[in-house]
Amino acid sequence: MGVTIGRHDVWEEPPAAGNGPDRWNARTDPPRRGVPPPAAAPSGHPGEGLPRQGNCRRDDGRLLAVWGPTGAPGRTTLAIGLAAELAQLGHRTLLVDADTYGPSVAQRLSLMNGSTGLGHALQEAARGTLDVARLRGLAEEALPGLRVLTGVPRPSRWPDTDLPGLRSLWPLTRRSAAWTVVDCGFHLETPAEATGGNGASRRGVATLSTLQEADLVLVVGQADPVGLTRLVRGLSELRALLPPDRPVQVVVNRLRPGAVGSAPERRVALALRRYAGVHDPILVPDDPVAHDRALLRALPLNQVAADSPARQALRSLTDRLTAGRPSEGRPPGPGTRCGSANRRGGRPAPQRARGRRRRWAGAGEARHELILRMVR
Ligand SMILES: Nc1ncnc2c1ncn2[C@@H]1O[C@H](COP(=O)(O)OP(=O)(O)OP(=O)(O)O)[C@@H](O)[C@H]1O
Ligand SMILES: [Mg+2]
Predict the structure, then answer these.
(1) Ligand 1 and 25: CB distance under 6 A
(2) What pTM, to 2 d.p., does this model score?
(3) Ligand 1 atom with least separation from CA of 79
(4) Which end of the chain is more exposed for a tag (fewer CB within 10 A), N or C?
């Protein structure tokens, strides 16, 4: 029998025998021809010895893809939150908005100068004129240590993202930052599956290219019957696309008993283990108050709700990635309005940075206020 959450049969097919990491594909469509069998879900912490993909140099940074199925499970929220955590630990971080269906990082961080950071970077990369210095110039500084390559300004501008540019871009992002965090679109259609010549496959090329390059793929799903079903199916599709040894970390977002029943942690963990062979999901509680504050102020969670439960979950994810170590280059400072940085004994951040952040926070609210007035 499948798992029932509330009145929903979340997984309608019976689980296969022998659940465990080798059952990653337990409840999925049959494997595609020519695609190697999916690898075991990773155990342990992906940050420990996370292998770099591609032809990377020793001191190149890591590339993290944040992907999740359709239904707004929280890809952008996770990408922004994680990038901000890494920056706060003192790691030079680049956040890239590669979602060609619903780019929103610029608005979420109040970087609304109308430029398309990614589009310009890709044009220059394809022409061979992009280097690390130019890339840094195209990426706007959102917070100390955190630069952002904003996405296409309107979804209709998706043709600005093309494969030759993307292929040249990733080695440069690795050289420009210790961590590159990429907010991907939900679409996973490969060119071979494209039908009707509607350009759907080319539109998803930014996501596919990111997934191919990433050292770690963070897969986010929403903790409700529909979101969990999509997550399990999405993991299966993703595994068919990714190289078999690519580490994947699952994040289940908006965990709440109202949508899955009592003891939601246990229920969700059990279901994922049984039906997707996932053993170590990060569970992020539903936290609408903290997230609304972040939305309104156009700032990451660690800037506006440092002690909130959702932010604490983000911290444990960041600790998994970095093994809890701040960067050696720049000690973390409490000026980012983050209590935990204080607890770590970091030096105070420079006054200048604090002032800048206040200005940004105010600008975010004012800008949102304008948008709210427009839609009233
Ligand atoms: N843990 C959480 N608790 C409460 N609200 C959350 C949480 N995580 C995300 N949200 C909210 O859910 C909404 C959708 O999140 P987000 O925009 O990150 O999703 P997405 O997957 O990027 O969606 P899209 O398909 O639009 O790109 C946002 O309003 C966000 O503030
Ligand atoms: Mg998004």
Answers:
(1) no
(2) 0.80
(3) 18
(4) C
